[in-house]
């Protein structure tokens, strides 16, 4: 039973120039109408939604979607007992939820991308109403009794149908349908309140604009292109860095020579929306704890993780602590290395590494010991060429075509749209929007958003999906094209992987389509694709110096980048583990004192596992993951990393390496196409063709088993 909006795929992570390094690409920008014949032949619905352009249209869409959903649920209830079947009662639930999910997905994109504050605010209100609809309808006793009546007949279903029946009954149990009415009513109220609080929490983060003013001297060491960027350099000649815009923050923290500059920016970022969001988050924690207790769980983590691979909070906690302990010597070694660099640079023998120093001295280590300046790699990753190269790689690997399409409606002028088709049959698979550059009010990191969910419709046609990549790449500036950092390219491959997971789905139920898989697995296929950016043969297909169109990244540079990755991986993972343990610390308890002191409690976790946080920090207040979607789930990044490394090892051992077509097609069939339509362990095993192993992950992070 779909109870909440389809969760967005986050990773912290996308117009097309038409000349690929590997050859001349098709320069034709196609129209959607060009795909109609192929869509009819494939018996699929392939197209774009009608986007809401005014507050009134948002309101109308919301009301219509809920009305249609209600009518479909009422039709299920109205059936006489002798008329009930699996199809018209159980399967019909997925169809009833479809219009509301599709509307809510569009509202989420509008909320995070619209240039109009009024539209963003109205979309936020609409999402809240739609979330309430999902909660309220999941508590409809009449629908539950209709479902239970069919379930009690033990219908003869198998495969995906059996999986859906199991999921529906599980979700009703997790919604307290076996509880007394008074407790059910309380639970319903709490779930609606939780949705409302989560939306406010996220919106406050997106709307924040903490500007930190610097002089040119204070930004010594920062790239000249950055200093000349109109988003940073004001007409008055002053530099204002937005602590809520990730690419701006990373540029300064990695390159600014003056420690005070890095410290001021770190403090501003770590204290974003502290005043606004701390009381909201306290309420969120209390509400979550009460929901868990009402349902008979020890805590929120156990409730949330029950339906994931880890199954409970203790398993997730033990996994993180195992890594935390294993990485301790490596982490200390890396901090000592950074401290020596700082001592040499500052002349202070007792120099200590602070929270705001890590990015800078990682970068210095890369440049000094390994003679690699990541910033200088940007010339190899001009945006248009990088996109073309990535597309050609995925086309070859997964047997697809990716073509630019004219978008009938654009919420921003430089919005891009791509159609994905099966290369063999020509069948349209899905559409992907890419919103490339930062702007005020826009979601400030990288993420893939669902737009139109995929599913098999009652008339037998298959609704093909639409997805959107919301990116924040450095924009073109001063006559130079958009140049991506090496990390940007990893993020691009990662996030486009989420989009492929969506558009290559073949699951019959919306509940299981695309990235609707356990949240501690969803990142694994995309994290795996980051390996392609580390491979010389893959990069040589597209990574050339845009200034001469032919110079490629030297082999020794890539080898050194791998050495750098291993040399700083302890710092990276201890940071990730700090956030994962922070998350579980506050969600594996029901103690009100912990909730009331959540800023101090969480700051202490980060300080103990990683480094002392900046003065005045309230990291939890801007930790958007925990506002909804990844709560009690941040451990899933490391968990998925372990699976990702195992999956990548299959490609690395294949005859064609990372470009091995049979392995790519097996990934498409066993992981992308199936989504959540079967137990995820079965999908993983079908791809690996063996049991899961942690050995590739330990090798990836430089640890012995």
From TrEMBL:
The keyword Zinc applies. This is Peptidase M3A/M3B catalytic domain-containing protein. One of its GO terms (biological process) is peptide metabolic process. Belongs to the peptidase M3 family. Residues 1-25 form the signal peptide. It comes from the Bacteria. CDD domains: M3A_TOP.
